[in-house]
C-alpha cells in the first residue's frame, strides 16, 4: 500500500496525535507519521511520539521575533522531513497566517471540539452549555486562512447531558475526536491518491 506521509503539529499532551499513531500502526491504514513537531519544548506529546519511534522536532515560537519568523522556521523544519503529503494540526495552539496555510492547499487539516460552524475558537464546551445546547461534537476540517472555516471532512456528534460540566463534556467529546481524526485522514488519503498527489 502506498501510504501518505503525515506531519503532526502539537502544543501539549498529544492525545489526538496518539490516536493517529495508533491508527497508523495498522497495516491497512493509508498513512504514516513522518514527524511530530511541537511549538513548545515541554509538550508532553513529544515523549509519546518518541515511544512510538517517530522523529520529533521543536520549533519554539518564543524563540522568534514574530509570526513570520516562526512560520519560516516551521516550514524549514517540515521541509527537512520531505516528502510530506498532509499536515495534521492536533491541539496546535498557534494561529497560522495565510502565507503559511497557502503553502499547503488542500494538504492541512485540523480537529476542532465543536460542530463547526458553531463555536469557532476557544472555550467551545462552556459556550455550548451556556447556550443550552442539547448536543455538540467535533469536526475535522481542511485548514484555510480564515480560522475554523475550512471545508468539513468528518463530524461526530455527542449529546449534552443535564449534569454535564465543561470538563465532563470535553472528556466525552475527546473520545469521539480520537475516532474522527483517523477517519478523516483515511478520507483525505483516498482523495490525495485519487488525484495522484500522494
Structure description:
Strand 4 (86-89), helix 4 (98-101) and strand 5 (108-112) form a beta-alpha-beta unit. The protein starts with a strand and ends with a helix. With 198 residues, it is an alpha/beta fold. The mean pLDDT is 96. It has one domain (4-195): Rossmann fold (3-Layer(aba) Sandwich), CATH 3.40.50.170. The chain has helices at residues 15-24, 45-51, 67-79, 98-101, 124-130, 166-195; strands spanning 4-10, 31-38, 56-58, 86-89, 108-112, 135-142, 152-159.
Fold blueprint:
Blueprint: E1 4-10, H1 15-24, E2 31-38, H2 45-51, E3 56-58, H3 67-79, E4 86-89, H4 98-101, E5 108-112, H5 124-130, E6 135-142, E7 152-159, H6 166-195
Parallel strand pairs: 1-2, 1-4, 2-3, 4-5
Antiparallel strand pairs: 5-6, 6-7
Helix pairs in contact: 1-6
Secondary structure: helix percent: 25-40%
- Please, how many helices? 6
Please tally the β strands and state the result: 7
* Strand percent estimate: 15-25%
Q: What is the CATH class designation?
A: Alpha Beta
- Tell me about the largest β-sheet: 7 strands, mixed
**CATH topology group:** Rossmann fold
Q: Taking strands numbered 1, 2, ... along the chain, how are they ordered across the largest sheet?
A: 3-2-1-4-5-6-7
Overall outline: globular
Spatial separation of the terminal alpha carbons: 11 Å
CATH homologous superfamily label: Formyl transferase, N-terminal domain
Order of helices and strands: EHEHEHEHEHEEH
- What is the correct CATH architecture? 3-Layer(aba) Sandwich
Rg on CA atoms, Å: 16 Å
pLDDT < 50 runs, ≥5 residues: none
Indicate how many domains the architecture comprises: 1
Average pLDDT number: 96
Structural class: alpha/beta
Amino acid at each position: 500500500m502506498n501510504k501518505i506521509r503525515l506531519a503532526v503539529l502539537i502544543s501539549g499532551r498529544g492525545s489526538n496525535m496518539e490516536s493517529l499513531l495508533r491508527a497508523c500502526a495498522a497495516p491497512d491504514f493509508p498513512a504514516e507519521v513522518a514527524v511530530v513537531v511541537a511549538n513548545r519544548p515541554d509538550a508532553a506529546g513529544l515523549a509519546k511520539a518518541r515511544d512510538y519511534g517517530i522523529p520529533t522536532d521543536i520549533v519554539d515560537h518564543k524563540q522568534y521575533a514574530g509570526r513570520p519568523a516562526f512560520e519560516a522556521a516551521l516550514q524549514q523544519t517540515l521541509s527537512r522531513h520531505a516528502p510530506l503529503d498532509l499536515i495534521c494540526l492536533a491541539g496546535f495552539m498557534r494561529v497560522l497566517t495565510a502565507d503559511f496555510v497557502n503553502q499547503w492547499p488542500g494538504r492541512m487539516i485540523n480537529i476542532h471540539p465543536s460542530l463547526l460552524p458553531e463555536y469557532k475558537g476557544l472555550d467551545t464546551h462552556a459556550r455550548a452549555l451556556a447556550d443550552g445546547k442539547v448536543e455538540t461534537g467535533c469536526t475535522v476540517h481542511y485548514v484555510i486562512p480564515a480560522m475554523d472555516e475550512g471545508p468539513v471532512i468528518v463530524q461526530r456528534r455527542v449529546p449534552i447531558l443535564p449534569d454535564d460540566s465543561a470538563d465532563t463534556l470535553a472528556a466525552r467529546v475527546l473520545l469521539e475526536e480520537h475516532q474522527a481524526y483517523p477517519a478523516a485522514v483515511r478520507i483525505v488519503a483516498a482523495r490525495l491518491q485519487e488525484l495522484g498527489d500522494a
